[in-house]
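Weekly structure sync, notes
Attendees: PL, DS, HV (note-taker this week)

Item 1: DUF1501 domain-containing protein
DS walked through the input record. Source organism listed as Micromonospora endolithica. Sequence as pasted into the shared doc:
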Amino acid sequence: MDTVTRRRFLVASGVVGATALAAGAAAYRLDDLLATAGDRDPDARTLVLVTLYGGNDGLNTVIPYADPAYRAARPELAYQGEQVKRLDDQVGLNPALTGLHRLHGEGQLAVVRGVGYPKPDRSHFRSMDIWHTADPERPGTTGWLGRWLDTAGGDPRLAVSFEPALPPLLAGERGAGASVPVTERKTGRGLPEPALAALAAAEAGESAARARAAACFADLRSVDEMVREVRDAAGADEQEAEGESAPATATGGARTPLDAQLDLVAQCVEAGVATRAFSVSLGGFDTHADEKQLQEVLLGQVDRAVTAFADRMARTEAGRKVVVAVYSEFGRRVRANASDGTDHGTASNVLLLGPGVRGGLYGEAPSLTDLDDGDLKFTTDFRDVYATLLEKVLDTDPGAVLAGWRGRLTGVL
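Item 1 (cont.): predicted structure, written out as tokens:
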């Protein structure tokens, strides 16, 4: 879904008001973020929110391989115990999650199980609106990070999205976060480097419009170069992998690779910008058919991008204060469908990682036999996760953002 269509949908749905969208839709560039370098408290933590659009299958991500009900419900989709990356003698990670498995062994990956909300909704947009606004009963017109932004002073650069459209979660009552999309547009390749540099250079006495055009071109060149470096580092073989550069689906997700988005986050963290919360995403997880191979490809992209980012962050003091949260709008049905896929479900997992995270398994694993009309019953309210991130990472009172919510995750941060 392109930026304009997504924005129209959000306004029409009433999830985000036009005023808030307009506030966040201003043209922000990478330079606008870098201009805040040195403006933040060196002890402050940073939140990086990774959204997996489409409804990632949590049961084939964090796999209850020892539960006979798992294999009985999805005989063709189930993984055997020897295939998974074991976390303990009951559960393991998808074979594609080798990097996250390593981080778990280092005590830096927390798996929060059974995360959901009351009266779950299986619509992509409705469920994602609930996650973005943190209101299961009646999704409001502001996002939970947008409301945090209101309490933090309202500077859009404190909460930044590297996605093609401003996500509802960054829309506040009085303003919204900044949208700095990473695109796959290219600068001209036929021009020599001196000519390209001249187009990006400001000249004395030129009009404001021409100066702005030169600045925009310079920023585009900078972003293109960052994206190129990330892709080159991935290696030629990875670029040939099936689905590696698949575009976003209608359910959302940035059109650029997740590792390119996280590279820009890393650049900002290393520069010490004022931004406290970043939003990035990957789409394509709506696996109704032929799920197993497709999900492994997608999870492989997530694994490579997130673990490379985590390893890079571990090298600096500012990076070691970063907490990454990975989630999707819902999980999938317990039982496989007739197309070797899974349909829209309910509860799933949230992954938290970083040096400040106490690794391990959190929350009660939902039963695979005591179901709600074929779906998992949630055991952890997603607002417990949000409240913990607000309190421990963003240093704010969760009650002011989450309408007095008192639940927390214990011991994870």
